[in-house]
Write a structure and sequence with these properties.
- The protein has 269 residues and is of the alpha/beta class.
- It is 43% helix and 16% strand.
- The chain has two domains: 143 residues, Rossmann fold; 112 residues, 3-Layer(aba) Sandwich (Rossmann fold).
- The radius of gyration is 18 Å and the shape is globular.
- The structure holds D-glutamic acid (DGL).
- The site of D-glutamic acid has 16 residues, from helix 3.
Length: 269
Amino acid sequence: MQHAIAILDSGVGGLTVAKEVMRQLPREKVVYFGDTARTPYGPRPAEQVIQFTRQIVDYLLQYKPKMIVIACNTATAVALEDIRSRVSVPVVGVIHPGARAAIKTTRSGRVGVIGTEGTIRSGAYETALREISPQLQVVSMACPSFVPIVEQGRYEDDIAREEVKHVLRPFREEHLDCLILGCTHYPYLTGAIREAMGPSVALISSADETAREISTILYHNGQLAQSNQEPVHQFFCSGDPHLFRSIAQSWLKEEIQVTPVVWRVPTIS
Ligand code: DGL
C-alpha cells in the first residue's frame, strides 16, 4: 500500500496547496480533508480550532499517511505544535513556508500580510518573518469576508472583485512590495487581489514553498513515492459534497470523487 500525504483545511482553501503538491510531486498520493461543515475557522477561538484539527487528524490517521500537512494558516498558527506532539509522522504547516517565500521576494523590506482574524490575532507571520529577518516592517490585516466568498464558489463573481477592492483599499497606501496571502483560500481571489493592489506588489502564496518543503522532507527521509502508476487521490469533506466537488474540480482541473464525512460529535457552536 502506498502511503499518502494527508492534507487538511477548514474547506476548499487547502486545495491551493494540494494542487501544488500534485504538480511538484506527481507520484505522491494525496488524501485531502475539507471541514466544510464548520468553515470558517478564522473567527473561532483557538481552543476550538485545535479541537477540530485534532479531530480531522485522528480521522486521517486511519489512512496511515506518511506526512500531515496543515494547509490552513488559522490551524497552523494555533495547532501545529499540538499536532506535532501527538503524531509520529512529520507535520508541515503553511506559515513558515509563506514567510520564507516573502523574505526571498521582498526588496524594500515592507511586507504585508492578510489572513483570517485568528491568524492575524496570533501574530504568527510577524513572529516567523522577524525570526529570520528582524529588520522587516510587517503590516497585517484580517479580511474575514474573503473565505465565505470562496466557500460559496463566488470567487470569480463581480461581487468578489468589488469586496476585495473595498477591503484592500487602505493597504494600497502602505508602500508594500509584497503581500503574503496568509490564508490558503486567498489564491482563489488572486486576480481580484492583484487588481486591488496594483502590479508593483508581488503576491505570495505559501503553496509553492510548502510543496517544496514537503518534497525536501520526503527526500531526506527516503520516503518519496517510487511507483510509476498514477496515484488515485482521495477527497473527504464534512459539508455539502456537491459544492466541494464543483469548486475542487474547477480549481484542480480534474475529475474527482468526494466522500462525505458526518461528524458524530456535534461540535459546531
Ligand atoms: N484556509 C484557512 C486559512 O488558511 C482557513 C480559513 C477559515 O476557515 O477561516 O486560514
